[in-house]
Design goal:
Length: 465
């Protein structure tokens, strides 16, 4: 019997069918339809308290008494601790003594302003020199002995004229002397007046300066008393508001510190963010009898009556975030728990993301949380990490396509559609962009077919099923 070798007819037929069958197309289509679209922005966040007050020691000393313990709830104004500081008490005593000394200084002496008088004698009179008078007398006696009456008369007339002329010269000289004296007196009085005025102004300014200096000294002394008294008052540490107490840690030094001279805040408290309180740092635990230095953290009070979220939103999304936007928060510490939240403010100070980008702070109020089964989630604690999902845009009945249909081409958003059985490129305008669906504002019509898979293989005019 002859055995024929070859391919059985049935196998051959199957091979021919397999070779001639077309490979399945990588392109898949979907339809433009109406659907709700919600756009969500995710951002990392941290749970924050309503307020945190870090209360520090205003001066060096020792902890005299503690009235609270860690985790205890306190009311505003409640005494939390007392610090014994002889140094602060001594400073207050010295400041009060300085104030009393400045107050006893009295008023400055009043300096006189009267102008001194100075005047030259001007009582010059006409007096004939005795020698001249004796000369005229001898001449008259000699003339009287002349026998000739006529000659005698002429000589006497000449003597009278000479004596009258001499007297006139003396009077003119006296007038000139009086005029010169009066001129000198006027000039001297004017000069003395100017000097006196300048001296009076200088002495008045000195008097004013002395009064101002004394007033400044008294004011400085009073300010020193206020600072010292505030420091002593701050040794009794009180709660600035209702909250929960966390005892801080001291440096354990207890040595005098110049910062004790600075005016502290109310009740010796410096209001700082929780991140800056330093209450968790290393050091000596707060306890009665432990020495403290000025500025050591004694107690931190945290108001947890209202919790908030502080989120960092990327710069590419922050312009979509507005106050009043609703959000959901998921906490790392509460798996499967979802908390309600609402945006209360959007900051303008840029920050840096973990990847080196730019972000902006967004504040949200934090509501209650629930688990998947509807049970209530626990109340978070400040400092816990979270992820917020901000609902920035929502369209309940949008003209939408699957998100996979959108192709980015430069600045354009492009969709491939089917027109008369071939591919057609369309530029579209997008609205809300959800995870699975995207809103189309223009460029497509309801019911059109679009490519949702394999768009990278599609070319203009290519036949599509």
């Amino acid at each position: 019997m002859t055995i024929r070798r070859g391919i059985p007819p049935l196998v051959l037929l199957l091979l021919l069918v397999a070779c001639t069958a077309e490979e399945p197309s990588p392109v898949r289509l979907d339809t433009v339809r109406r659907a709700p679209v919600t756009e969500v922005v995710e951002a990392p966040a941290t749970v924050t308290a309503r307020a945190t007050g870090t209360l520090r020691s205003p001066a060096g000393g020792t902890i005299e008494k503690l009235y609270v313990r860690d985790g205890q709830k306190v009311d505003k104004g409640e005494i939390l601790a007392r610090i014994d500081s002889p140094q602060a008490e001594e400073q207050l005593k010295q400041a009060r003594a300085a104030e009393r000394a400045a107050s006893r200084g009295g008023s400055p002496p009043r300096l006189g302003t009267g102008a001194p008088g100075l005047r030259l004698a001007s009582g010059l009179t006409v007096k004939t020199d005795p020698r001249v008078r004796r000369g005229f007398a001898k001449a008259r006696a000699a003339v009287r002995e002349v026998d000739d009456p006529k000659v005698r008369k002429q000589l006497l007339a000449t003597l009278d004229a000479a004596e009258a002329q001499h007297r006139a010269h003396q009077e003119a000289l006296a007038r000139a002397a009086r005029s010169l004296t009066e001129s000198l007196n006027r000039a001297l009085s004017s000069a003395l007046g100017q000097v006196t005025s300048q001296m009076s102004a200088g002495l008045g300014g000195l008097s004013t300066s002395m009064a101002s200096l004394r007033a400044a000294s008294l004011s400085q002394a009073k300010a020193a008393v206020t600072v010292a008294r505030t420091t002593v008052d701050g040794l009794t540490i009180k709660a600035p508001f209702d909250g929960v107490v966390t005892l801080g840690r001291t440096s354990g030094g207890g040595a005098p510190d110049l910062s004790a001279l600075l005016p502290p805040g109310a009740s010796g408290a410096a209001q700082l963010p929780a991140s800056a309180s330093g209450s968790s740092g290393s050091g000596t635990p707060v306890a009665v009898g432990v020495p403290v230095a000025a500025g050591d953290t004694i107690v931190t009070v945290t108001d947890v009556s209202e919790l908030t979220l502080s989120a960092d939103v990327d710069e590419t999304d922050v312009l979509l975030v507005k106050p009043g936007i609703e959000a959901e928060a998921e906490l790392d510490a509460v798996p499967a728990g979802v908390y309600t939240a609402e945006v209360t403010g959007v900051g303008v100070t840029p920050g840096e993301t973990s990847t080196g980008g730019t972000s902006y702070p967004v504040q949200l109020s934090l509501g209650s949380g629930t688990f998947d089964d509807g049970s209530r989630a626990p109340i978070p604690k400040p400092g816990m990490s979270a992820v917020v999902r901000l609902i920035v845009r929502e369209s309940p009945d949008a003209l939408a396509v699957p998100a996979s249909a959108i192709v980015t081409s430069g600045r354009d958003s492009v969709v491939w559609t089917v027109r008369d059985g071939v591919a057609e490129r369309r530029v579209v305008k997008l609205g809300a962009q959800g995870e699975s669906m995207v809103e189309i504002l223009s460029g497509l019509s309801l019911g059109e077919r679009v490519v949702v898979r394999g768009a990278d293989t599609v070319r203009q005019g290519r036949p599509l099923p």
